[in-house]
Amino acid sequence: MVPERRGSLTFAVLILFFVSGAVGLVYQVVWLRQLTLIFGATAYASSAVLSTFMGGLALGSYWAGRRADRWTESPLATYGKLELGITLYAAAIPWLLESATPLLETAWRLGADRHFALFGLVKFGAIAILILPATTLMGATLPVLSRSAARGVGGAGAGVGRLYAVNTFGAVAGTVTAAFVALPALGMKRTLVTNLALNALVGLVAWIAGRQAGRPAPPDVPQDGPTPSNTGALVLVFAASGFAAMVLEVAWTRSLALVLGSSVYAYASMLTAFLLGLASGAASAAAVLKRRPQTDSRLALSLALGAAGLLSLTAAHAIQWLPRLFGEIYFRLQPSAEGWWLAQLAIALVVMAPTTYALGWIFPLGLHAMGAGSRGVASAVGRVYAANTVGTIAGAACAGFLLVPLIGVGATLVGVAVGQVALAALPVGSAPVRSLRARALWAGSCAILAVGCILLRPSWDVLLMNSGVFMNIQNADPAKGWAGFQSEIRHNNELVYAKDGLTSSILVAWQPESDNLYLAVNGKTDASSRVDLETQVLLGHLPLLFHPSPRDVAVIGLASGITVGAVATYPVEHIRVVEVERAMIEAARRFAAFNHAVLDDPRLTISINDARNEFQFNPAEYDVIISEPSNPWMTVAANLFTEEFFRVGRTRLRAGGVFGQWIQTYSLTPESLKSILASFHRVFPNVLVFAMPSGVDLMVLGSDRPLELDVDELGRRTSPLWIRADLARADIRDGVDLAAMLQTGGGRVGAVIGGAEPNGDDNGLVEFSAPKALYLDTQDANTALLQGATGDPVAALAGLLRTSWPEDSFRLELIRRWIRWDEPSRAARAAQAIVDPAVRTQAEELIRGQK
Prior knowledge:
The chain is an alpha/beta fold.
């Protein structure tokens, strides 16, 4: 058992609280993933989840702080009961989640969707019911256990600071374990079950040890002697520092996503770096207070705040050099997939760790400054922790909804630095033991430093920051290295539009040398007027061409609006676009010359919402749904490539409807591609897979009715002037062109999949595997998977094609297309099956000419 000695923390108690921190973080990660699937991935939904989680911690710490000092039970036993309570409620959350969906559907059908604020309140209330009880118990654990921590040398500052540091180090371990080990290997459900078992073990060990520790702890009463004055100012400092820390985390995450990308591993690296700095700072402060209990904690607190402000400004300057750092690592070291995770962590540490190390000192120093000794310690810890947590809630909301969208990421970082330096004047300034002159001198110094932060603010190169270095660096000439990449960005780019939106950073730029207008989201190019024009155009046409009379169409993802513009060339009645980022609308207007000014089309409505959330709760039905999200290696977009999402999408299709899903062929292993196709095929029994002429993108069509490519019928459907003209932009002129794009379908899809495990919400197979293929050339392997590396490619499509053309003539026309699209192997294999000698000769001449 774990003995509980009065006067100091045992090593075993610290181990328990370390594991508790890890368990709590894993809960947070899993719950966030589960709640996002139901409540959406919009900024409002994510903020509601985070606010509820942090609000529970604040509520629990405040509640326990007001009561724990009077409890006679052993603190360790009480802590064990809290952990067991967390386990029991956390075990019930999956069942509570199942009941949330029908409740939200009912609210939507009753009209809540027409009142944004009302529906937001319904969601917030549901989230609070789901996780607030558990997080309230979590928040109570630190004040309760702090009664044991504060009885050694250095008082609460040293003992509770050490406890806080250990718990935060546990959170670091939980972050790494969840993202890199547990979720990829076990999936969400088994990770949650394992976490519940570990949580229950912590609770049981602590409860039994506390019961056997001896006599119960006496209630704490206020100590005799003077009480530190003006503790209200210190509580304000805690709240303000929590506010600043959360604003920094939001702004850093947004800026680092431009350099590291938006994979689950990149975000895990950022969170690890943030927590590691906090834990290290708290541990250092606790150690100093234990060695020097007479430390002037108010002065030290002011110095820590001032240092945090100056380091925040330094980090803002450092961020503008991160693209180069990333590029140099790529060119000089060429890390493996695992090496890249270490590189990402190192880059995140460069930005975050110095500032968060300084912030980590604030909690122990503040407790010491408040005079929280061995009596009344839970009350002090509860007030401090609650104030800090309330500040983080306000910081998250303010950063996401006000600061970043209104003034941008860079200005937000500078503003935080100024605020932290200004805040440094408060601890010393509120200490009556110092002379008025000393306090004025200190306040003046802080004011001068704050002005200096404004004057020395960095000026980011917007084009370079949004260059998508994490993705586009592989297209640079290795011989020219970083200098070549940088030259291309700066000399063939003209800024058109840039906006830090609620969920992502949007950029539109013009490349004069290639006559190309492109759109980047968090640095990753998602649309352009030339480079991937064919993909955007054909994603809009293919699904509609396979529906006899489409009236209502839904498109997931606005981007440049070119796909929506292609849809608008058909005589449909309604087009609904579901887009998660409002700033994308203004970006799409910059593409009016390429998207047929579709934003002014009266048939178009735009829903700023998460696509899964939209389809789950909006009962509207469609004839065609086109899903064109970003890449599946991105943590939010990954939710739109799972079997569960496809099932939700199918419920919104009318009988005979067509679902079109975009999938990449590059930087995606054949195993990941098969997993996505397996999940799609389990939902849609009838499937056709098309490749764009360039071969880099796929369009997968699914339906509840058989799908067949009738060359003559498609020729008639593409004959109207607007449709024909728009398809010509993608070099598609008739039904034969479309037939040449067909890769596989029908019964052969099962053979292509080959028993692959479907990509699902629980296993997250592609979300965790796809980032590892970011720098792999997989296009040829994926093409071979779909087409087959040997055999007659036309015979492989038997049963999927219908045409009035003579067989050999049709083969010859397909060969012409495949040669034009640089598919010589496919053309050569098709030519071998031509029976007519004259036609075969023509085919062979075409192939030789291509060579």
